[in-house]
Amino acid sequence: MDFEPPFLKIYNTLLEKNLGDNSENDLYSKVEGSEELPLIDLEKLNLEDPKREECMKEISEAASKWGFFQIINHGISNEILNKMISEQKKLFYQPFVNKLSAETVFNLSPKTYRWGNPCATNLRQLSWSEAFHFALTDIPNMDQHITLRSSLEDFATRMDTLAENLVEILALKVNMKSNHFQENYLPKSSFIRLNRYPPCPISSEVFGLLAHCDTSFLTILYQDSVGGLQLMKDGKWVDVKPNPSALVVNIGDLFQALSNDVYKSIKHRVVAAEEVERFSTAFFYCPFNDAVIQSENKPAVYKKFTLREYRQQTLNDVKETGDKVGLSRFVL
Ligand SMILES: O=C(O)CCC(=O)C(=O)O
Ligand SMILES: [Fe+2]
């Protein structure tokens, strides 16, 4: 189909070299998905104490024990989510050549459209997915594409409010002021990432998305019912089973640093499926590039850094090692 990125064609050389090599074939050996991710009902935030207080505690405990949790009654309507997914599908079903020139067509920043990892030098770095990575600041420029633009705007507005509520609760629980984010991190430079995982004929050899931690304060994800997302818990990979009424929330590197390691930014990845395609939509809650990330807790685990410095370090590390090293680069 002309909308599919040419994964096999581009990955061919690496695959020929490595297929059948058993040392590279143990991708899923460590999956043991028995534990259930916390599922938190945000409805309780509208109730009187002690119910409200209990819910706040559940959120902060999940953020420190798991770094990940699911939320229901989150206030984002099915209408908003379905509209987003339907626009997302239309976008991905454009011919591949159009997607490659999406930045010019939609008037967007470079690298909004990404696919796989054409620069991979070994099988472990291949990923079987494509994504549109929209900076929220770019969305108002998409005047020619009204329905996509309005879906992104509605989704972003609701997600931003939800993320704001969650970070305020999480801030309070680590003795920061609840308005810390409003006072220190405006303007925000959050973004939306639309992901598509095409059916993968070699799903036992490659991942849909490689294991990574997010560079955000907080990420909120809507996933369809296919499944494939896994997170690392106590050294084991655990499946995040799809729940159609839930959103998945995870702590990003910036909040781990800001909370002085109380909240955990956890590695996660997506397993590729052989027969079906999968969609997910992520909202990354982030500050402006020159925002300073520094915990007030003592002794500090990390030196102070700006998001710009963090991103630069990440880019250099990915270029040199194929992998983002992340927070350990900034340990004092
Ligand atoms: O598709 C998913 O379930 C996860 C996506 C993800 O981790 C990301 O976009 O950073
Ligand atoms: Fe992620």
From TrEMBL:
Q: Which UniProt keywords apply?
A: Iron, Metal-binding, Oxidoreductase
Q: Does the keyword Signal apply?
A: no
- Source domain of life: Eukaryota
Q: Which SUPFAM superfamilies does the record match to this protein? A: Clavaminate synthase-like
Give yes or no: UniProt keyword Zinc-finger.
Answer: no
Single GO MF annotation: metal ion binding
What's this protein's family per the entry? Belongs to the iron/ascorbate-dependent oxidoreductase family.
Name of this chain's protein: Gibberellin 2-beta-dioxygenase
Q: Per the UniProt entry, what species is this protein from, by scientific name?
A: Medicago truncatula (Barrel medic)
Lineage of the species this protein comes from: Eukaryota, Viridiplantae, Streptophyta, Embryophyta, Tracheophyta
